[in-house]
Every structure is written in C-alpha cells, then in structure tokens.
Amino acid sequence: MSEGKLAGKVAIVTGGASGIGEATARLFACEGAKVVIAGIPQDAGERVARSICDAGGVAIAIETDVSNDKAVGAMVSRTVEHFGGLDIIFNNAGVAHDTEITETTDDVWNLVVDVTLKGVFLGCRHAVAAMRERGTAGVIVNSGSTAALVGFTKRSAYCAAKGGVVSMTRALAIELAPYGIRVNAIVPGATETAMVRDLYDLQSDPVAAKKAHQQRQPFGRLSSVDDIARSVLFLASDDASTMTGTALVVDSGYIAG
After folding, report:
1. Is 0.85 surpassed by the pTM of this model?
2. Range 179-202 burial, b when 16+ CB lie within 10 A, else e
3. What residues act catalytically?
4. Which of 10, 29, 116, 169 could cross-link with 94 by S-S, CB 3.0 to 4.6 Å?
C-alpha cells in the first residue's frame, strides 16, 4: 500500500471505528496513507487498526473524546510524534438525537453540539497548528450533513450543529488559504450506518420506516458508507487540489427533489 492517491500522507479520521469513518480510514490506507483511528471506545478503534495492518496498511488507534480540548490536542501530538507529521484530518465524529424541541434537554443539546460541532472546531484548531508548524500544505475535510441544508423534524440540535460545521468550513477555507491548507466539507444524505438504523428502530415499524426513507431518495436507495468514503478521498487527494470552501453533497439526489 505504498502507492496510491495518498501515498506518504498521514491522516487522522475521527469517529474512525465505524460507519463512514471506518470506511474512509480503510480507503485512505488502501491509497497509501498512514492512518490514525481516533475516537471512543479504544477497543473498537484498535479492531479497525489491526484489520488495516493485517491487510498490509499502516494504522494506529488513539482513544479520543473529540469534545475535549486536551484529548484532541493529545491526539494530534501523538500522531505527529508517531508518524512525523500530519497532512490530512477528516473530522467525522458526530452524534444525533431524535427529540422534539420541548423535550430537548440542555444535556442532549450540549452532547450533540459538543461532539458534532465543537469536536470539528477542536480538530481543525489543533490540526492547523501542526500543519503550519510543519510548513507543508494540508487538507481538512469536515463531516457535514444534508441536515445543514434542509430541516428535519425532531433534529434541531443536529441541524444546528451541522449547519455550523458547513459555515465554519467556508470561513476556515478563506482564513487558511494563504497557508496552503484546503478546507472542505462532505455533506452526506441518509447513509446506511448504525446511526441511521438506530433511528429506524425507534419507529413503530422499522422496516416500513426504512422503505419510506428509501423511496424519498430520487435514486431509490440510501448511500453506502463506501459511496461517502470515495467522495472524502476525492476531497483529501490532489484530485481536488484547487477546491476549498466546498460543501460537496452526496445524497442520492435528496435535496434536489
């Protein structure tokens, strides 16, 4: 795996132990990157890292609470110490809660915003410091959502957090361009992940809920985690060398409908 679109690069993937994060970490490794699987719990990250190494890639796991400044700083510092630098960070970790506004407690709001928005902010802040210190161009890809662009019932905290991610991405793209650091957001629609399956399970008829959700997509299906991972790879690679400040929508046509 010494060759590929990310050959010689060092990449952090937060929330890299499952779903979109795991698929992206595996694809990054296949394309030659040395990958850090960041998130909690540690054993899940180590499982993915071992699997990547067994397949001939290079990966380590670092337990990280992305909402905690010291933890994120330590994640970046350990990455630089272990691999000699940092070229790419995919700020992917996030959480969602399905609650009406009157039932959205402070604790629920703070959890969603702290992980989904503050976690991206902290990842960017510490990654930029490492990239600028190294003096080489870097790439940041932040995980948005179609919830940043259209409203979803019972998702006020999540929509607010993801909207903030997309707006922050545009601001940082302008701020960091003089340093050669590109900042883009991937904006997935409904994707076949455990988070989405859990939301179906909350419905009275999960099978019917999934079918109805699929039928609302112009393509008649949800994106797979691999669909999203390939789009993240595009933004992280030199294929997108002049793209910054972009919110790349990958949603089976949902918001166009």
Report:
1. yes
2. eebbbbbbbbbbbbbeebeebbee
3. 158
4. 116
